[in-house]
Design brief:
single chain; about 350 residues; alpha/beta; Quinone Oxidoreductase, Chain A, domain 1; Rossmann fold; 2 domains; seven-stranded mixed beta sheet; six-stranded parallel beta sheet; 9 helices; about 30% helix; globular; binds NADP nicotinamide-adenine-dinucleotide phosphate
Length: about 350
């Protein structure tokens, strides 16, 4: 593999690199690790040699041929990437700089971090903060940025310390980082999970209480039950979100960011007009780069999470293919980090 490190991207020599590639034939999708040529990457301001990527639910959808995420195949998923600038068309970034790219179109219709190289717009990249280890940045990845944006929004209305917090999809990527961060900020955290055997894990990352999904649903009284929680991070939608809306305390706030259970939910206006609760939508994909940078910087210092090692496993491309099947079945626990050679 040979690359001329030159600021002018046009002078790059051809080279090959490894990539997970999803191909479509007669409506069927196949997934393989293949060699790709740099000239197959889109023209971008930055050519980045990816060191780490991570697995998010959206990657699994792209991997399995979900056209709501990826319209055009062949394609390489990976909405997250931490890497080193190989060549740059802009003064802001120089070869050798360590950068982070998450969201925007990366891994959706732009080849993503499940390949060893990406080529992207300068507007999608931000510097890796000095105090954040490269691997830790991808333990966080989009899941972390999303959890961070949720908690940032909650902080606009609530002092997190001593608040009664509830997190759904607790063992998943967004869920487990939200729990760790809320616990660090002093909240009293309840985790909702579908995995009976994950209670120990959820207590170990800072939950004070763990409730099984079915038990939670059985405990909900609609249209409005006892006010039990002040703040909530919901990644699952559906009936669970309906249950949360009916169970928030006066002035409570729910951040809504996911749909693993269902994109639809039922509610009435009562919790909104009688208890003044708020439901806030969170999108990390298209969040402006300065917002993402702010969250990365918080995770590097003020929100630095210890013991991230217990939250993730590192895999190679081959293993990543198996992990994707698990996340699609809701069986994943914690975060999966992809390390390129
Ligand atoms: N808005 C944004 O910017 C943004 C960014 C990132 C992710 N998301 C969305 O957030 C959601 C979670 O993403 P993620 O990366 O954290 O996924 P993940 O790692 O797969 O976590 C999802 C978790 O939800 C729970 N779950 C799975 N199926 C369920 C079901 N049918 N009903 C209820 N709970 C179920 C499981 O946890 P338990 O077994 O512990 O319950 C699972 O581990 C996805 O919908 C994703 O698209 C949105």
């Amino acid at each position: 593999m040979k690359v001329i490190k030159n600021k002018n991207m046009n002078k790059l020599e051809d080279f090959f690199f490894n990539s997970i590639i999803i191909e479509e034939k007669n409506g069927k999708f196949s997934q393989n690790i293949k060699k790709k040529k740099n000239s197959e990457l889109p023209a971008g301001d930055l050519l980045i040699k990816v060191q780490y990527s991570s697995l998010n639910y959206k990657d699994a959808l792209s991997f399995s041929g979900n056209k709501g995420v990826t319209k055009y195949y062949p394609h390489t998923p990976g909405i997250d990437a931490m890497g080193i600038i190989e060549s740059s068309r802009t003064e802001k970034f120089k070869p050798g700089d360590k950068v982070l790219v998450t969201g925007f179109d990366l891994g959706m219709n732009t080849p993503g971090g499940f390949g060893e190289y990406i080529s992207v717009s300068k507007d999608w990249a931000t510097f890796l903060p000095d105090d954040l280890r490269p691997r830790d940045s991808m333990v966080l990845g989009t899941a972390g940025i999303t959890a961070g944006l949720c908690i940032n929004s909650l902080q606009d209305k609530h002092t997190i310390k001593d608040q009664k917090a509830i997190v759904t999809g607790a063992t998943g990527g967004v869920g487990c980082i939200a729990i760790k961060l809320l616990a660090k900020l002093g909240a009293n955290v309840t985790a909702i999970t579908g995995k009976e055997d994950s209670k120990e894990f959820l207590y170990s990352i800072g939950s004070n209480e763990v409730i099984l999904r079915n038990e939670f649903l059985e405990s909900v009284r609609k249209p409005m039950g006892k006010g039990r929680w002040d703040i909530a991070v919901d990644v699952v939608g559906g009936e669970i979100l309906s249950g949360l809306i009916a169970s928030m305390s006066y002035g409570g706030t729910i951040t809504c960011c996911g749909l693993v259970a269902s994109p639809e939910f039922d509610t009435t206006v009562f919790p909104f007009i009688l208890r003044g609760i708020s439901l806030i939508g969170i999108d990390s994909g298209e969040a402006p780069i300065h917002e993402k940078t702010k969250i990365w910087e918080k995770f590097a210092v003020e929100w630095k999470l210890d013991n991230l090692d217990s939250l993730h496993r590192v895999v190679d491309m081959e293993d990543m293919m198996n992990e994707i099947k698990k996340i699609l079945n809701g069986k994943q626990v914690g975060r999966i980090v992809l390390k390129h050679n």
